[in-house]
Amino acid sequence: MERGSGYGSSTMVVALAVLVFAMVVMVPEVSATRWTVGSNMGWTSNVNYTIWAQGKHFYNGDWLSCSGLDLVQILMPRTDYGLKNQMDILEVNKTDYATCNSEHPLHNWTRGAGRDVVPLNVTRDYYFISSKGFCYGGMKIAVHVENPPPPPTASPLNEKSGSPSSIFTSQYVLPTVFVIGSLWDAFLRFL
């Protein structure tokens, strides 16, 4: 084997390591949440979704997943078990939410077979109900969607706390150490 034959592959490893490092450092954190309405109870009647939503923070970019299907129905999607046209998820205004009026929905989010997913992509109040009388059995939920909180800011560095150890606590040091270690390992393997 020639001495220079490993040059191309080691260059490729270095380039890949630099690319991974750049992605880790430069890509902002994404933290959208996919909320399963009712948690393990799902989208069904006789559940108080006001209590379920209480204390939860819904942010712009989150999703609501409304599924009232059990495991057997999910594993056998070709049979709708009579639920396809019953358990729906309708977005309505505040007045229709309060009165369980489904005659003029703003949007029908029903997709069937447990695929009812609602994007919460506007900062506002959302009101959802199920029609055909299910709303009166508790199948309704109101959520307030807000912008995510700003990321925490670093406290100002005053002269007394400006020790060398505080410099090494930045978010860039640990990824840099891993990249240097990976590059060193790749260098030693291709020698």
From TrEMBL:
Which keywords, in A-to-Z order, does the entry hold? Answer: Disulfide bond, Glycoprotein, Signal
Pfam family membership, one: Cu_bind_like
Is Signal there in the keyword field?
Answer: yes
All residue ranges annotated as the Phytocyanin domain in the record: 33-147
- Which Gene Ontology cellular component annotation is one that this UniProt entry carries? plasma membrane
Give the family from UniProt.
Answer: Belongs to the early nodulin-like (ENODL) family.
Q: What is known about what this protein does?
A: May act as a carbohydrate transporter.
Q: State what protein this is by name.
A: Phytocyanin domain-containing protein
From which source organism is this entry?
A: Salix udensis
Highest classification ranks of the organism: Eukaryota, Viridiplantae, Streptophyta, Embryophyta, Tracheophyta
